[in-house]
Amino acid sequence: MSLSPQLWTAEVVYAGFGTPMKNGAIAVVGQHVVGVGGLEELRRAFPQAEIIPKGRALTPAPVNAHTHLDLSALPYFRGRYLDFLNYVIGNAEKRGLEAARIGYAELRRLGVGAFGDIVARDEVMDFLLEESMLPGVAYREVIGANPDTAQEIFDTVKPRLLAWKKREGNLRVGISPHTAHTVSAPLLQRLVEFARLEGFPMQIHLAESPAEVEYLRYDRGPLLPFLQPYRGPHWKTPGVSPVRYLADLGVLGPHLTLVHAVQVAEEDVQILAQSGCKVVSCPRSNEGLACGEFPWEVYLKWGVEVALGTDSRASSPDLNVKNEALHLWGKVDPRVLVRSATRAGYRVLGLAMPRLSRGTPIAEVHIW
């Protein structure tokens, strides 16, 4: 084994603390990191070191903050958002435990540091709690658009969540009200109150597509005939944006992470900033389902924490969260993307951020 020092460089170097660096480097001797900092600083400290370019970025393990592992057996779909919903519903027999095993194995191969998964079936929750070697959050999905069934649904899911919480290990248990248009206001309020009292983290899909905004604001558009049979006679159209709707219900807060949040105005982002909500963006899924372009500049302006996720294998070509960042490389400041794929992901899932420092094994340095 050579003990000659090397300086590994990349377009962005991030040690897991501070600001991701351009013109940074990692000093390596043998199988360990011996220093992280600016390239010129490390060149002075190691004047004989060979400089080795290593790609786009050098970071700790990235985080896939939003997955649907039980969709991992479905072929990749591109098309309209509503067509995708029908595609998933029409392939219900391909969802479940075996698909989740496939997706989880992919995450392990990719070397993610943590993940968030939306769990639609109890057997998948049991599998993840028993077998996951990775940390993160498994969010049990809840659906129920009819306000008249809110208490019944809540009473059914509450004891399951409490029982799963007692089995937490590497993974925490969370709650995922599916969307603002598939979960009635009283059910959503019950779930949020319960989550706050018992300490469950939450994720909700919100403001994903133009059709969602049209439905919640005006009770029209392609989602109306799709949802009308499920919402019951007492559904009331909010008449406001999805973000404003949740704000008016009093359910926003640091406990809640919004997934997608593409279809937002600056006023909505300001509301999220004031509430302490975090966001997970899924760029390739949003593009493939024609949902719109995530307004990075507005979120940065208001200081909202934005992590990255892949959504599902049904709506993205893989579960590699690095590819979400690389998909936007050149359009968004790469330092922002690197931070979103690492530190922001850990923060969304309530986990400590690993760091690259003197003594870190080089096996823990991720090369993009």
UniProtKB/TrEMBL annotation:
Entries under SUPFAM superfamilies matching the protein: Composite domain of metallo-dependent hydrolases, Metallo-dependent hydrolases
Keyword Hydrolase: yes
Pfam families in UniProt: Amidohydro_1
GO molecular function: hydrolase activity, acting on carbon-nitrogen (but not peptide) bonds
Residue ranges constituting the Amidohydrolase-related domain according to the UniProt record: 58-351
Stated name of the protein: Amidohydrolase
Species for this entry: Allomeiothermus silvanus (strain ATCC 700542 / DSM 9946 / NBRC 106475 / NCIMB 13440 / VI-R2) (Thermus silvanus)
InterPro entries associated with the record: Amidohydro-rel, Metal-dep_hydrolase_composite, Metal_Hydrolase, MTA/SAH_deaminase
